[in-house]
Design brief:
The complex is a heterodimer. By secondary structure, chain A is an all-alpha fold. Chain A has 18 helices and no strands. Chain A has 2 domains: 93 residues, Fumarate Reductase Iron-sulfur Protein, Chain B, domain 2, CATH 1.10.1060; 265 residues, no CATH class. By secondary structure, chain B is α/β, with parallel strands linked by helices. Chain B folds into 3 domains: 179 residues, FAD/NAD(P)-binding domain (3-Layer(bba) Sandwich), CATH 3.50.50.60; 54 residues, no CATH class; 158 residues, FAD/NAD(P)-binding domain. Chain B contains 8 helices and 24 strands. In chain B, the strands form 8 sheets. In chain B, strands 3-2-1-11-24 form a 5-stranded parallel β-sheet, covered by helices on one side. In chain B, strands 13-20-14-15-16 form a 5-stranded parallel β-sheet. In chain B, helix 5 runs parallel beside helix 6. Chain B starts with 13 loop residues before the first strand and ends with a helix. The chains are: A mainly alpha, B alpha/beta. The interface between A and B is medium-sized, with 22 and 22 residues.
């Protein structure tokens, strides 16, 4: 035989995949490659997910992580539906993605804690304690009397800003460290295309990043799914909801610090209207996601703790957000303040832990898509 | 004639349900050591699936070879009686003491038939030819196939009471057509029952990504047997169904429905060899044709490995390790486009072929029609030998040789049921 490669299987890693929700069926795969053929989003050269299934079975962690392919998968579950062995490649790749987020987590302990239900109470306790300390310091513990004004009578704006800016910085640092390491691994793991024509067409990295984001806006890749074709719209509503709320937040900062307008604002203020529409879009989207997941559980899998933690975080944020608004208008202080408190806690939870939760898919998937364009991974046609 | 026997036979006899190679073998092995045996067959002829093959393993004989000698043995043995066009309606009692109700549907042709064919000439109604998997039509008065046993015509029930049937009767010079025949129910008392109802090709339409039934040039392996057979719809010429064109490139899709939890979770055992065998049909007819076999694993048990090596040595035969999961049609040329991932090179490959053969697997006949009595099944509807014995492909997927061997063993088991009491 010619010179062979000595494979060093990481059996611990195989065990970790098989112990993750969605990864249990890994060993059923018999490498028939049905999955690579029925997948509508896979490239034609070295298609996924068949090779990922092999790498996962052999515990070749680096081959899985240092490769954009696990993130090029949208988990349409077409592969899972047609898999003759019930090996569920879509779900296995979901489990591998979770481990990848954990792998690139910085600080790494955060990756382990967010992915493990054991630590849920501790992670929730952090924002609870922070906000209780603020309330205690302000002497605001208890239900304030009179007209409901969250900023003045409960958690003051400077405290909100200080807490959330810190949380955002913590998350940004985590993302920066994770993505930098991921990009480094990607560059070492894959041969970058030297096709000059293609580089000319694709342009420099900033252009590729912009193109990737524009392509994402249309959800074109997502719409290629067949078994779970309804997911693209639901996801788009959630995304647009988040984007709208981000704009609303910026707008509010301008009101407060630029124009020195104090909250609460009237319902027909354009900023308020955008916020309300965004919240409804988010609510509709996340409810659709939950419905779709239930409906597709048979073919696409029910999802594990990692998926549901993220879904429930968003659902809680949007429900408590809308309720805070409604209860304030209805003037039910005894419910309004506690609901608003929960809202603040969960928003903190989402932001501060974003690089370690499923929220991180946003950043890692975008990175992988950019890399796929950058390296020419996307374009290879039939031989 | 034996198939007109009615009335209750002496107890202590064996009932074999299914007149294919397994049923015939079990019946003859028991009859030739002195036991009374009844063969019951739902088709108008004996021979089952083997009769539909072009050639069969291990020696690539035409089925005429193996079946004819068995039909001779049946004719020469007064211990064997057979009923065609007959099905089992009910089984009561137990081993040593079964009471079986049978229903015979009318053939409308009696023992006077000489197979002169005048009735078919006179008949102006055509029906799809099931024997050729609907690839051609036959007259509603027909001989199921050239070597059908019993050698006797059949009138299709759809023309009874119509003018076409009268024309057939008038054309018959031997008074062989009896349009007044009625379905009849009768009982047999037997001591032992052997279920040998064989298999059906798995319905290829259920694999929606393989497009069988939508793309005309996608056929099944059993259809290929008929195409290659000298008594088939094309007189043995392997041509494209869409335009009758000679074949220059052809692909075989292995495990089309077998080893697949969504369809048949088990290996059907014969399909790899069947495709290799059919490759030789094509290569013998077309010295320049190219054959590509897409597979997950090639399973050529025992001595069959030699056959695989022989086919592999042919420079015009290509093997691609990767399951076909997508089949499309070129609407202009009617060529078939086949996509798979070659797992050895890690590239998706798309091939263009004149024609594609799906190596569909074996589904036990009991997946659709259950034993009307106390039988045991495994999780895939194969019959496990219990009080009612089973043999052949209704017991497990087998080739002809294995069917012959297990059928002989089952004959002994049936005899033991009789002798032990």
């Amino acid at each position: 035989m010619a010179e062979g490669n000595l494979i060093k299987p990481d059996l611990e890693f195989v065990k970790r995949i098989r112990n993750s929700p969605g990864g249990e069926s890994l060993k059923k795969c018999y490498q028939c490659a049905t999955c690579s053929v029925v997948c509508n989003v896979t490239p034609e050269d070295k298609p996924f997910p068949r090779k990922e299934m092999l790498h996962a079975q052999w515990g070749l962690k680096e081959k899985l992580f240092a490769n954009p392919d696990i993130w090029l998968c949208n988990q349409c579950s077409d592969c899972t539906a047609y898999c003759p062995r019930g090996a569920k490649p879509g779900e296995v790749l979901g489990a591998v993605r979770k481990l990848s987020i954990e792998h690139y987590a910085f600080p790494s302990i955060m990756g382990k804690m967010v992915g493990d239900p054991k630590y849920l109470w501790f992670l929730l306790a952090v924002p609870v304690v922070i906000f209780l300390v603020v309330l205690g310091y302000m002497g605001h513990i208890g239900i304030p009397d009179g007209e409901i004004i969250y900023a003045e009578k409960f958690v003051p704006v400077p405290a909100i800003d200080a807490i959330f800016i810190s949380a955002a910085l913590f998350a940004a640092l985590g993302f920066f460290a994770g993505v930098t390491r991921y990009w480094r691994d990607l560059k070492s793991g894959v041969e970058i295309s030297t096709n000059k024509w293609q580089k000319k067409v694709k342009g420099p990295l900033p252009i590729i990043i912009i193109n990737t984001i524009v392509a994402f806006m249309t959800h074109k890749r997502f719409r290629k799914c067949e078994v779970t074709r309804d997911r693209a719209d639901a996801h788009l509503f959630v995304f647009l909801g988040f984007a709208g709320l981000a704009i609303t937040t910026t707008w509010a900062i301008v009101y407060l610090y630029g124009m020195h307008l104090e909250s609460p604002y009237p319902w027909n203020d354009p900023m308020k209207i955008l916020g309300s529409i965004s919240a409804l879009s988010l609510l509709y989207g996340i409810v659709q996601i939950i419905t779709n997941r239930k409906k597709n559980a048979e073919t696409a899998g029910a999802g594990g703790y990692f998926d549901w933690l993220f879904i429930m975080t968003i659902l809680t944020i949007v429900v408590t957000g809308i309720l805070s608004y409604a209860l304030r208008l209805a003037d039910i202080a005894v419910l309004a303040y506690p609901v608003y408190f929960i809202h603040l806690v969960i928003v903190f939870f989402l932001f501060a832990y974003a690089p370690f939760s499923k929220m991180a898919h946003m950043v890692y998937r975008t990175t992988a898509l950019v890399f796929a364009k950058y390296s020419g991974r996307e374009d290879k046609k039939y031989n | 004639m034996a198939d007109e026997t009615t009335g209750t036979p002496v107890s202590g006899s064996i009932l074999v349900v299914g007149g294919g190679i397994s049923g015939i073998t079990t019946a003859l092995e028991a009859a030739e050591v002195g036991y009374e045996v009844f063969i019951v067959e739902k088709n108008p002829y004996l021979g089952g699936r083997v009769a539909q093959l072009n050639k069969y393993f291990p020696k690539l004989c035409p089925p005429t070879c193996g079946l004819e000698i068995n039909f001779q043995r049946i004719k020469n043995n007064k211990n064997v009686k057979h009923f065609t066009l007959t099905e089992i309606e009910n089984i009561s009692g137990g081993p040593g003491n079964y009471d079986v109700t049978l229903k015979e549907t009318p053939r409308y042709v009696n023992g006077n038939c000489t197979c002169c064919g005048k009735c078919a000439e006179a008949c102006d109604v055509e029906i799809p030819n099931d024997f050729n998997f609907g690839m051609d039509k036959r007259k509603a008065a027909y001989l199921p196939h050239e070597m059908a046993f019993p050698q006797r015509y059949v009138l299709d029930a759809s023309i009874i009471g119509k003018d076409a049937a009268n024309k057939c009767r008038e054309a018959c010079e031997y008074n062989a057509i009896d349009l007044d025949m009625k379905a009849k129910t009768f009982n047999l008392k037997v001591a032992s029952i052997v279920w040998a109802t064989g298999w059906n090709p798995y319905d290829a339409k259920k694999m929606d990504n393989l497009r069988f039934g939508w793309i005309k040039n996608v056929i099944t392996n059993m259809m290929m047997e008929r195409l290659a057979a000298i008594n088939g719809p094309t007189g043995g010429k392997i041509v494209r169904p869409s335009d009758g064109k000679a074949v220059s490139s052809i692909a075989f899709v292995q495990c089309a429905g077998s080893r697949d939890e969504n369809h048949l979770p088990y290996c059907s055992y014969v399909c790899c060899l069947a495709s290799l065998k059919q490759t030789t049909y094509i290569r013998e007819q077309y010295p320049k044709a190219k054959v590509t076999i897409f597979y997950i694993d090639l399973r050529t048990p025992g001595r069959y490995e030699k056959f695989y090596k022989k086919v592999k040595a042919d420079a015009n035969v290509f093997f691609v390790k990767g399951k076909v999961a997508k089949i499309e049609e070129d609407p202009v040329t009617r060529d078939v486009l086949v996509t798979a991932e070659n797992t050895l090179s890690g590239k998706k490959v798309q091939g263009r072929f004149d024609m594609v053969v799906l190596a569909t697997g074996m589904e036990p006949s009991t997946a659709t029609v259950k034993v009307p009595g106390n039988a045991k099944y495994d999780e895939n509807n194969f019959v496990i030998s219990g009080d009612i014995l089973s043999t052949g492909c209704v017991k497990k997927p087998s080739d002809v040789m294995t069917s012959g061997q297990t059928a002989t063993g089952t004959a002994l088991k049936a005899i033991q049921t009789l002798v032990r009491r």
